[in-house]
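Notebook p. 47: complex prediction with adenosine-5'-triphosphate.
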Amino acid sequence: MTVSPDLVCRDLVKDFDSFRAVDHVTFEVPQGSFFSILGPSGCGKTTLLRMIAGFQSPSSGDLLIKGRSMLGVPPNKRPVSMVFQHLALFPTMNIGDNVGFGLRQRGVARSEIKARVTQVLERVGLPGFSERRVEQLSGGQKQRVAIARCMVLEPDVLLLDEPLGALDLKLREHMKIELKALQSEFNTTFVYITHDQSEALVMSDKVAVMNHGRFEQIGTPHEIYYDPKTAFVAGFVGDANRFDAKVSAKSGSALSMVTQAGTQIEVEADASDLSVGQGAEIFLRPEAIELAKAQADLTVKTNTSVGVVTSVFFNGANSMVSLKDAKAGMSFNVALPQTGAFADLQPGDEVYTSWHPAKARCYAHDGA
Ligand code: ATP
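Predicted complex, structure tokens below:
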């Protein structure tokens, strides 16, 4: 079954004088899905969201919600609602009045407001909270009130502008799961902007990675993480070891390359834009590298090397070891296997590494 898009942005551009903040962005968001726009500070995320909300008008392009162009439609007439980073709850009103605010502005009858507020508070897991004051709530509860205040208006699209940014780390981890659950509960289209890749990967059906006003890639979290289409996406999403190399031989997708330090490596990649002699950036995830205490223990027999441990970062399942690889002339990080076999690893220890040629991502240097 194909789901029709709730939101369509076609070739959207936003110029501030001679500066282009949003540069020909095109995407569709199907009804009921969670779409994140992920990118570094200043890449144009907020400008794009503000155009969807109607606070800013595009310089060119079109923007449709439920098939209707929103060009020229004022913010309060668009079927969208927005959650801001600082939530903007009214401190002098109780929770019920906060949640019912938009309905009162629309002239909805008191009895209906009461019923709808009661119902939406139940759906966000805050039954009976109507009479409470804002300052009596935890950070997570305030987030849910902010969502309830938007969802009571039954928008087609909910826009979320880094709503977890002001929370402490522990609560942020928890709220990621909650937000995703709330989105499923309401089955409403969420468009979420963030510079935090883990938020985008955990919650989204699709992620758009934005850089310098453009979308570099749109894909599922799995695609964005495992099959980044550009060097920017490979470097921005997840941890990656990055190094430069030159193509020395090529046969189909099999590339032999030489690193800057003169080490030969084997890479298997879509090499259509790479020719012999060309420079490329290589990205290798820490978990793609095999680690062993003896060379014979390595199961992957390509790209083998030996390195000296410079530091060990114990972080439970995400423990990492930094190595200085004298032969390859570089340092890199390797995910520590969960077997416990490396529990006694110390700085100064020698370890063996290898990686499968298909595990690396390889991109021609711009202009090379
Ligand atoms: P952050 O994560 O820091 O909020 P962002 O990705 O949301 O960043 P935007 O706020 O959309 O980025 O800004 C994109 C670029 O457009 C920035 O370089 C910013 O300085 C510029 N910009 C935004 N609004 C205006 C404006 N009203 N006038 C001129 N330039 C602007």
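Notes: The pocket of adenosine-5'-triphosphate is lined by residues 16, 19, 21, 39, 41-47, 195 (CB under 6 Å). The longest strand covers residues 5-16.
Next step: compare against the earlier run before touching the bench.
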